[in-house]
Amino acid sequence: MKKSMYNIYIQGKKETAIFNLLTRNIIVISNNEYLNFDKLINDEECKEQLKSMGFSLENNINEIELMKYTLNKGKFSEKSMTLFLSLTRQCNLNCIYCYQDRRKTFDEGNNFLNKTAWLKIFEFLKKKSINLNELHITLFGGEPLLNKSIILQIIDDLNSLKNQTLKIYINLITNGVLLDKNFCEKIYKSINYIQITIDGNKSTHNQLRVFPDGSGSFDIIYNNLKEVINLFENKIELRINVNKEIILNCFSLFKKLKEDSLNKSIAINLHPIFENQSSFEYGCKKNTDKDLILQINDLYNYLSKHNFKFRKNFIEGPCIAKHINSFAIDENLNIYKCPGFLYSKSNGFINDIGEINFLDSDFFKEVNSEQKCINSCIYAPICYGGCTWQNKCNKEILDLTLESQLKSYLISRYNFEI
Length: 418
Prior knowledge:
The chain has helices at about 30-35, 35-40, 45-50, 65-75, 100-105, 115-130, 150-160, 180-185, 200-210, 220-230, 250-260, 275-285, 290-305, 360-370, 380-385, 395-415, and strands at about 1-5, 5-10, 15-20, 25-30, 55, 80-90, 135-140, 165-175, 190-195, 235-240, 265-270, 325-330, 335, 350, 355-360. By secondary structure, the chain is an alpha/beta fold. The protein is globular. This is 4Fe-4S cluster-binding domain-containing protein. Its cofactor is [4Fe-4S] cluster.
């Protein structure tokens, strides 16, 4: 037996955590066992379990080919589907850094997903569900809660599709302004995950995330968060968009969250921001500011030591554009390979009988593509050539972030001692 080339080793004071990038499994062993790991993977009592979890494999197996096979089996599978569904291009906030400039200037068709359009999507899903084991659907916008009636319809219809073989996961991305308790009581049993954005402390947030009249939104969003936290306990992720200035103002927000006992019920996601669509696209295609990345790492480390939670979103991937059964759909039934391309050139549309009419071959081209870098990069299982929309190599970023954020995750989830 040999060790997997996709193992990441985090050595702590007394124990060592091993994370496998291909299987996403984590084990914690003693430091002494780590020093003798080559023997451990060949131990009769341990080797089959370690092999099944991906931490070791037979000596004659080419692990690069195994990785390609595993990921290709997933990306061509009809057993799972990921769908991003825009419920409206309208928004009730006018954030100064909003990168969805295309949404603001796009004036064709409907502004909201209506019942007629949804029923065509639902017909599409019913046909697909025959082969599905898992359906992951994310409702977003614009601001999706401007279209609450269609959310209720979507939830009812999707619940009717559930059976013993089909699991459905419904996620919601919202600014939180309209996340009132009355509405949440109608949906909380069916929602698996909610992302809400608060950018730093009250002062900073109210400069960035404003209503059209220029007034701030912090108090409304924060009070809504406190009102519904018990309904969505451990289902809410707080996204905080940061730059070098905002990140310094996050500590007072974290203090407030802790004082209100919210830190143990929500997960934190820190994300770099850009001023607008142009700088967002430029920034995504250039190297991200290393100093900001290191500041984000330090902030995650701080959060882990103060009993905050965060998801393993630093290892999400590969890009959904590489999966044959993943789509983004706008309010007018246009199909895109991922939400980053919304309101640009579509790849097709859902027709009146709930089937996709493809307009070009670009959709399939990305699924079939295979970057040369995957043959030599340890990050291939989670990157597989990177995000289609960003169109850049992520190795430099992953070198800076993965090990550091994995350490913070281990401290947060497992009380791991570094």
